[in-house]
Amino acid sequence: MPILWKEEMTEAVLKSELVKQARESLPKFVIQRHEDRITHGVPDISVDGNKVGSWIEVKFANPTFKTRGIQELTMSRLSRATHAYYVVYADVKGVRRTYIVEPEKIGSPMDEWGTYTTGFDHKWVVEYIKEVHNVHNNGS
After folding, report:
1. DSSP 45
2. Number of H helices, E strands in the chain
3. Can you tell me the distance from the alpha carbon of 90 to that of 94, in angstroms, rounded to the nearest whole number?
4. Which domains does the chain have, with CATH numbers?
5. What is the mean pLDDT of residues 35-63?
6. Cα four-point dihedral sign 128, 18, 83, 64
7. Mean pLDDT across the stretch 28-35?
8. In 10 A of CB 36, how many CB atoms?
9. Closest among 35, 96, 36 to 61, alpha carbons compared
10. Mean pLDDT value across the chain
């Protein structure tokens, strides 16, 4: 079920809530936020568990978002080496959706991205992370 928000929606709030949900759901995993104002291009979140790694770049589209060329290049390179994807929380004309987008599709229109759910749903994103990391029902 999508999460209802009481505070002002920002990309930072969305990232914090996603990381919190992931850490609660995957306590044996190493989940880190990477935010360095000096080093550009490093994705926002890394997830390591079950000997699998993944990188996540979070965006808030209200209704659009900006991405730096270096971010797109880094995500593209990472996706060829390991798991890398964008999580885009979109609020367009009052319709909220959460998308999981492969790096090569991030420049395409939203209706071409494919995988999404209604609302801003961190649990849905964590379920995707579990699939990527081969997590079974017992959490490992």
Report:
1. E
2. 3, 6
3. 9
4. 11-132 (3.40.1350.10)
5. 90
6. positive
7. 94
8. 8
9. 96
10. 90
Which tokens go with 102?
Answer: 């492969």
Whole-angstrom distance, CA of residue 82 vs CA of residue 88:
19
Residue type, 96: R
Radius of gyration (C-alpha) of the chain in whole angstroms? 14
Q: Could you tell me how many residues make up the chain? A: 140
DSSP 96-140: EEEEEE-GGGTTS-GGGT--EEES--HHHHHHHHHHHTT--TT--
Cβ neighbours of 14 (radius 10 Å): 22
Could you count the other beta carbons within 10 Å of the beta carbon of residue 40? 11
Token code pair at residue 54: 């993944």
The confidence score (pLDDT) of residue 55 equals 98
